[in-house]
Each structure stands twice: as C-alpha cells, then as structure tokens.
Write a structure and sequence with these properties.
Peroxisomal Thiolase, Chain A, domain 1; nine-stranded mixed beta sheet; 35% helix; binds coenzyme A
Amino acid sequence: MRETWVVGAASNRYGKMTETAREAATRVALEAIRDAGLEPKQIGHTFVANCFGLAEHQAHVGPLINNGLGIPEVPSVTLESACSSSSAALHEAFVHVAGGFADAALVVGAERLGHLDTLAATSYFAIAADYAFETKNGATFPGLYATLASAYRDVYKTTPEMLGSIAIKNHANAARNPHAHFQKEISMETYLASPLIASPLRLYDCCPFSDGAAALVVAAKEAMPRPTNEPLVVRASARAGAVTDMQDRPDLLGLPSTRAAAAAAFRQARMTPKEIDFLEVHDCFTIAEVLALEDLGFFPKGTAAKESADGVTARDGRLPVNPSGGLKAKGHPVSATGAGQVVEVFEQVNGRAPGREVPRSGTALTHNVGATGGSCSVHIFSRR
Ligand SMILES: CC(C)(COP(=O)(O)OP(=O)(O)OC[C@H]1O[C@@H](n2cnc3c(N)ncnc32)[C@H](O)[C@@H]1OP(=O)(O)O)[C@@H](O)C(=O)NCCC(=O)NCCS
C-alpha cells in the first residue's frame, strides 16, 4: 500500500442551508481541492455521500458534482452507510489511493433536510433502522438511543449530571467553532431544565437536525512532492459491521461494531489508545459519546461518563474529545458528518482552529457510527 494523506479539507457552517446539497457539495469540494493546491482535473475518482438526496428529488449526485467541477469524465459513486456515509466514502478513497488506482480522490458528503419539519425529518432518519422490526413499530433514533441510555444507567448508575457534562463540554467547544450549528454555551441548569425527548434523554442530550457539507482530498504521498498544508497521514482506515436490531444483541451496554473497527484500526496503525492525542467521536446523543470512549478502548466499561464529568475529556483535559463540538453541538448533517470530523482534525493540525486548539495534535482518531451501530468507521491520523 502507498502512504496516503489527507491534503485538503473544507466545510460550510452546519445549520440551515439555503443551497441544495448538490450545490453545497460542489462548492466545498472546490474549496477542498484548492486548499490542497490542486486543480479539479487532478482528481481521479469522486466518492460522494448523500443519504437523503431523495428528500430533494435528487439521486446520482456524483456526476452532477463532477460536472460542476468541470470534470464530467471522472468516475464517481454515491455511498450510503447511514450516519457513517462519508467516513465510508473516505475509506473507499483511501483504498483507491493506497492501492494505486488513483493518485488523488475527492470525498464529499452533504445533506439537506432543514426544509422538512421535525416529524418528517425523524421519519426519514428512521428508515436507517430496521424497517420491518424497528421503524414500522414506531422506533426513532432518539427512542433507540434512549433504550441504550436506560440499559447503561441501570447497570452503571449514571446520573443526569454525568450526561449533562458531555452536552455542556460539546456546546462550549462548538461555541468556538465557526462551522458549528450551535455556537452557544449551556449551563447545567439549562441542561437539567430542558424537556425530556425520550427518557432519560433530554433536548440537550440530542444532536440537532443539521444541513451541511464537508469535503476532503486524499492523495498519495508520492503524488504530492510539495503539499500546501501539513498533511494528515492516514495510519488506519477500518470499518466494521454488527447486528442492527436491538432485540438480537447480546447486550445493550456498547456497540460491537465500534469495538471491531477500533481493534482493526489500532492493529493497522500499530498503535494503542494511549498514543492518541485527541478524538472526534460519534456523539449523536450524549450516551453515544460514553459508549464510544469505552468501546474504542480509552476507558474501562462503566467509567467514561464519570471521567467526562471530571473534565478528563475537556478541550484542555488529558484526552480532548470532540473539540469541534461533536454531533451534539457542531451538528449532524448525516452524510457530511464523518468527513466533517476529519475537517476538524485537519484544522487542528494546520493551526486553523483558533480559540479551540487542543494541547497536542500529533495523532488523532475519528469514529463514525451508522444508525445504532450496524456500521462503523474508525480512522487514525498522524502528522508526518
Ligand atoms: C431533539 C429534537 C426532537 C428537537 O426537535 P424539536 O422539539 O422539534 O425542536 P425545534 O426544532 O422545534 O427547536 C426548538 C428549539 O430547540 C433548539 N433545538 C432543537 N434541537 C436541538 C438540539 N438537539 N440541541 C439543542 N437545541 C436544539 C432549536 O434551535 C430551537 O431553539 P430556538 O427556540 O432558540 O430557536 C430534534 O432535534 C431531534 O430529533 N434530534 C435528533 C436527531 C436524530 O435523531 N439524528 C440521528 C441520530 S442517529
């Protein structure tokens, strides 16, 4: 395999977009290509994530993005892996570049559902669960993650304040991130006073419905003699799957696909969790951040919520987690989310995260889950 780098990155501000997903994807893709010091014609393959294009009456968006970039002849494919779609696209780009099938590849994820109300957006999202056994019987993602949160609380005795500390931390980080949907801090009082959405999860335990777009350029080291930015060396690009339905899982105290993807990633990178400086993890609900930190191997089972409440995962703590604000507060435009996590790593490493810098940025891990864990991607990056 060839040494493979992320050499350019761009994102818009998450929240409500006036552009369509296609327009936003094309614009951030061009920004990422220019950021890498490349021209569109140097892109050998485009990997697109746009799960809910049908909500905008648009499928097969890859060729349209390439047309907009002036490279209609370049192959493209749209990947769907629920909330982990653009990290799946990054994995495919990595495989192409590391395997020598392209010198440079574009990864772009975009989603727009902001024109729908909460009920319609919730219904669209819920089709990423098992329609026959979960969705048709009324399951929604807040409900499914509330089931995980209740199971965890009953065994490990988490308090509302422990989950609240994660929401407060991620809002504080997002308040310093110009790409974030919510750029406001919240207090414990605000958290505790917020309405229950699906017990025990409150409003501030949930990620919002966000529109957004994020793009990355992945290139072979040998094709980039003079990179314009400090590249991210892709040390590992691993994916895993697991049983999707809650009723068929051996327990509800973690996500097996995170454990499997993490084990594969640390093996590929020949690294251990102790060597990672900071993380962007999939915190679609605060409980998801707790499960991620344990399943990735950073904390023993049953301890991550308390460690978070003790400040260990704060931006200036021992292990900064979600300096971007995470899905919780930076936002969760489903198909842009995985690429957007890597944009944060790129900005941290390139000194483009003023006001929210982590103390050490030599190595980083990104973790992106599809739905309630049917799929998962883990990437590990380091400086050269
Ligand atoms: C939590 C949730 C139900 C709230 O929706 P809602 O009750 O219809 O809220 P609204 O859109 O009417 O917004 C009401 C207010 O709360 C804010 N808000 C909405 N969702 C929020 C969230 N998740 N966190 C913080 N604030 C939120 C809005 O900005 C708005 O604030 P304002 O009055 O100051 O303008 C919705 O955001 C949700 O379902 N989130 C989860 C999305 C999801 O499942 N994603 C997939 C994960 S796998």
